[in-house]
């Protein structure tokens, strides 16, 4: 670990803190303001799209109506993307002559991009046509991110609004359109131009054959990469145009690009905490959430950087010096610090993009991304998903605090009652059931083990990571597992859908239940939720819930993998 390495991490985080307030103010104006930005330019676009969708911006929806609208759009997205893949051989913009994607893989990809997971069991540059990349996958990159923002705002409205007897949470179609028109599309357009200036390619050309310095031939895939890359990072999607993702020089060519990509991943999740503080009319509420996320982030990046800096134990036993740390699976131009930072950020924010291979990290270094996902998409989390996941954990923390002081728990002046806690526990329990259930199944079935390239604890970790990534809508992978087979395509696709929608629906139901409650003034026994003590309690609850749930599985996977590696044994 070096001073330069830590400086990179601190500069990145300083940028995130610097943009949190201005971007948070902008998001509040877009979604909660009476007058949106650039009304003469973007206003007509918003109104036209709302008329096209048949939505009345003045009519708000209950949580049930909001959920039905969201599910309808998502179902349409799955079907459209599935059929685009199946028919891509006869569709335009296919210079590489890509054939139709097989049904299992097409379903997996459609579910993956609809849920903002962007898990890819294939090499994008040799599987998807330019049309599929743009009309199928990029479309989801925008809409799934906008859906996540809408869900977060709906829950936030339920918690912060003072409207006794009124259970509406906003209008899904308005939130969707505003998220696209005022936030995701304009920012992505500007960022794509910056990416192009740094060397990211953007064209509709087919593969290019070049002669290498050694005189051999190499085929270089080309395509509309910069436009994909911008929303891939901003929307915490993570699906790369190339199989190598952000370690590919056409996607991530420079150190400045690497920093910008990292900042894009955290930008909206961090800003939404400030937006939430404005909605609550108590900015300290938002800062408390940001502080809890930041503590968990620094714990993760510190552990990952330390583990990777120590190098690979097997290489050390061979008598080979590792002055740069564990460089297996990493780009030399990024090194250990930027790779550890990227791995932490992408799994904190359920992005899934990678600039190094997680499967090549040390066991403890690889433990960090896995734990980040298993904490439940709350350490900044996906666009929108991080905020609504953290708010559910806030209610759980408030409930536990209420038990400790012996009074009915309250949050922002509203009583947290059994209905909300049942929904919160449903939200919390869905996650481990999906991960541990399907991972356990795969580890005892021949068809689940057939494509595993590693045995022992590392092989267990690969399977556990796959289902954690799917349920957490992350999309990154321990690449030693061959997942582009029917069993993993179908089950991972189902887990992605369940991990997205079976957690969104309880979150919306909580918002609906809290929206119409009366507010009461804080009393002497009210536990303040905007201070240091509550922030520490919130962090402790998140860690305890994750540890109690997943520690046995982690003990058999990466922890045993580390201990075995220290002894020199090989499975």
Explained architecture:
The structure is a single chain. The chain has 571 residues and is an all-alpha fold. The chain has a domain at 386-567. It is built from 19 helices and 4 strands. The protein has helices at 3-32, 43-53, 63-87, 103-114, 124-127, 130-160, 172-197, 225-234, 255-279, 283-309, 313-317, 335-348, 363-374, 385-405, 418-444, 446-449, 456-471, 486-515, 532-567; strands at 208-211, 217-220, 410-411, 414-415. The strands form 2 sheets. It has a two-stranded antiparallel sheet. It has a two-stranded antiparallel ribbon with strand order 3-4. Helix 2 (43-53) packs across helix 7 (172-197).
Tell me briefly what this model is.
The protein has about 575 residues and is mainly alpha-helical. The protein contains 19 helices and 4 strands.
């Amino acid at each position: 670990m070096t001073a330069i390495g830590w400086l990179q991490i601190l500069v990145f985080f300083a940028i995130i803190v610097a943009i949190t307030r201005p971007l948070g103010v902008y998001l509040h104006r877009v979604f909660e303001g009476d007058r949106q930005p650039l009304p003469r330019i973007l206003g007509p676009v918003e109104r036209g799209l709302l008329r096209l969708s048949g939505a009345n911006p003045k009519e708000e929806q209950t949580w049930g109506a909001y959920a039905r609208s969201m599910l309808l759009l998502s179902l349409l997205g799955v079907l459209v993307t599935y059929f685009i893949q199946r028919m891509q051989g006869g569709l335009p913009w296919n210079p590489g002559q890509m054939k139709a994607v097989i049904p299992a893989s097409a379903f997996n990809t459609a579910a993956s991009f609809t849920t903002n997971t962007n898990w890819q069991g294939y090499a994008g540059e040799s599987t998807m046509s330019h049309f599929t990349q743009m009309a199928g996958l990029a479309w989801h990159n925008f809409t799934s991110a906008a859906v996540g923002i809408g869900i977060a705002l709906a829950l936030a409205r339920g918690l912060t609004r003072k409207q006794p007897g009124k259970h509406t949470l906003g209008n899904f179609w308005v939130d969707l359109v505003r998220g696209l028109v005022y936030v995701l599309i304009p920012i992505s357009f500007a960022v794509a131009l910056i990416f192009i200036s740094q060397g990211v390619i953007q064209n509709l050309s087919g593969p290019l054959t070049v002669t290498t310095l050694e005189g051999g031939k190499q085929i270089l895939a080309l395509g509309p990469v910069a436009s994909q890359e911008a929303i891939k990072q901003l929307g915490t999607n993570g699906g790369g145009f190339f199989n190598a993702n952000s370690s590919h020089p056409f996607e991530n060519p420079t150190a400045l690009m690497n920093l910008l990509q990292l900042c894009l991943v955290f930008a909206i999740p961090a800003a939404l905490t400030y937006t939430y503080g404005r909605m609550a009319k108590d900015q300290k509420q938002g800062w408390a959430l940001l502080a809890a996320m930041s503590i968990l982030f620094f714990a993760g990046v510190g552990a990952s950087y330390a583990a990777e800096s120590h190098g690979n134990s097997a290489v050390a036993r061979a008598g080979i010096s590792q002055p740069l740390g564990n460089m297996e699976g990493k780009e030399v131009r990024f090194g250990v610090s930027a790779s550890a930072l990227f791995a932490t950020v992408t799994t904190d924010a359920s992005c899934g993009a990678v600039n190094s291979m997680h499967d090549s990290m040390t066991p403890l270094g690889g433990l960090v991304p896995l734990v980040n996902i298993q904490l439940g998409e709350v350490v900044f989390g996906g666009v929108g998903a991080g905020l609504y996941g953290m708010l559910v954990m806030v209610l759980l923390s408030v409930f536990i605090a209420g038990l400790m002081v012996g009074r009915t728990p309250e949050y922002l002046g509203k009583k947290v009652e059994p209905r909300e806690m049942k929904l919160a526990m449903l939200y919390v329990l869905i996650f481990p059931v999906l991960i541990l259930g399907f991972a356990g199944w795969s580890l005892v079935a021949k068809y689940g083990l057939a494509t595993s390239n590693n045995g022992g604890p590392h092989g267990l970790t690969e399977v556990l990571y796959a289902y954690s990534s799917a349920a957490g809508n992350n999309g990154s992978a321990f690449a030693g597992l061959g997942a582009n087979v029917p069993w993993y395509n179908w089950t991972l696709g189902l887990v992605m859908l369940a991990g997205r929608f079976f957690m969104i629906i309880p979150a919306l139901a909580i918002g609906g239940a809290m929206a119409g409650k009366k507010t009461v003034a804080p009393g002497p026994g009210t536990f303040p939720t905007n201070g240091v003590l509550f922030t520490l309690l919130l962090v402790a609850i998140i860690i305890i819930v994750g540890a109690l749930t997943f520690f046995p599985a982690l003990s058999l996977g990466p922890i045993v993998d580390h201990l075995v590696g220290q002894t020199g044994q090989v499975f």
